[in-house]
Amino acid sequence: MSKNALITGISGQDGSYLAELLLDKGYNVYGILRRLSSPNTSRIDHIINSIELIQGDITDQSSLNEAMRVSDPDEVYNLAAQSFVGTSWNQPVHTADVTGIGVVRVLEAVKHLAPSAHMYQASSSEMFGKVQETPQTENTKFYPRSPYGFSKVFGYWACVNYRESYDMHISNGILFNHESPRRGIEFVTRKITDGVARIKYGLSNELRLGNLDARRDWGFAGDYVDAMWRMVQQEKPDDYVIATGETHSVQELVEFAFSRAGLDWEKYVVVDPKFVRPAEVQLLLGDATKAKNVLGWEPKVKFKELVEMMVDADLEKLKKSK
Ligand code: NDP
Ligand code: GDR
């Protein structure tokens, strides 16, 4: 018999890739979609007839409870979040409510209405924040540097606590940055690849960025949703770092993306203090050895291939729209 999976955040980057993966595996896929004044289904329009969308919001307990009743899930993937670190300083209370307390609301709904379901929590390398050690592992101390980061730490510990208090099957994936052509436009990778395409087609003549020295461990979202699924299939719940084990600076990303389109980045990139954050996470580099050994997971797409994929997709998109 097919399993039922419920995804919060199904309209986001990861939600869309995860829904595709679960459909391929024969799951009945349910997703929680919030009401907005403009359509927010562009990433899932191509599979919309194969999934069941339930209107709800992670700040609304009754809608989460109803989603559990309707979907009767074997697996719950909690991906919903205010996920943009920059915005978390402008909307700290909202971020804490959605990204932090939202996790507790999902845990409560699972505990009461789907207690035997296996649950995945989208935890983040932003929890490591200020560098304590590199590479970062499951045992590295957290030191969050933003309202987003401290909200994710809260969510992480809420999951550990419910796992230990109620013997629930809950796993935290501590995922490092992962990107794709479906990445939101404000995140630095997509901002750069979209900017490159605009400059290439004469729609823009500059790209304004913040800290070019920050370093990240960037992987491909399609690979990372497979790791989520693998965690949920384990006999025992646990927490895993998911990363490529490579780190690159924003500047390296800029250089590589511009050169992919045959452009000289120095003619176009302007550093704008507006995009520099009040507190920065300067260096992220993950060690996913545990995921490799226990889950049999390894990233397939590495940095250069990822940037090429994203630049090419943005060039193609603009070419079509022209
Ligand atoms: P996105 O920002 O692309 O997607 C976030 C999703 O959450 C969207 O579907 C959004 O809906 C939904 N959402 C936001 N607020 C609410 C709300 N109040 N109620 C219900 N749904 C809501 O993020 P990603 O797909 O990149 O990330 C998925 C998860 O993984 C997030 O929790 C993120 O914090 C975490 N994460 C991401 C990493 C990455 O590098 N991508 C790394 C580590 C963790 P809408 O479309 O309506 O806005
Ligand atoms: P991050 O991703 O904060 O790591 O969070 P983002 O792409 O926003 O920033 C990465 C780094 O680039 C620097 N940077 C800029 N960032 C943006 N957005 N815009 C700019 O103009 C710019 N210039 C330099 C940033 O300062 C930062 O150091 C992402 C999100 O997906 C989180 O939800 C997730 O948990 C973490 O990755 C892991």
Commentary on this structure:
Helix content is 42%, strand content 16%. By secondary structure, it is of the alpha/beta class. It folds into two domains: 4-178 and 219-242, Rossmann fold (3-Layer(aba) Sandwich); 183-216 and 247-279 and 302-321, UDP-galactose 4-epimerase, domain 1 (Alpha-Beta Complex), CATH 3.90.25.10. Strands 3-2-1-4-5-6-11 form a seven-stranded parallel sheet, sandwiched between helices. The chain has a two-stranded parallel sheet with strand order 7-10. The longest helix has 22 residues, at 92-113. Guanosine-5'-diphosphate-rhamnose binds at residues 83, 85-86, 124-126, 176-177, 186-189, 191, 209-211, 214, 216, 250, 275, 277, 280-281. Guanosine-5'-diphosphate-rhamnose (GDR) binds at residues 83, 85-86, 124-126, 176-177, 186-189, 191, 209-211, 214, 216, 250, 275, 277, 280-281. It catalyses: GDP-alpha-D-mannose = GDP-4-dehydro-alpha-D-rhamnose + H2O. Catalyzes the conversion of GDP-D-mannose to GDP-4-dehydro-6-deoxy-D-mannose. This is GDP-mannose 4,6-dehydratase.
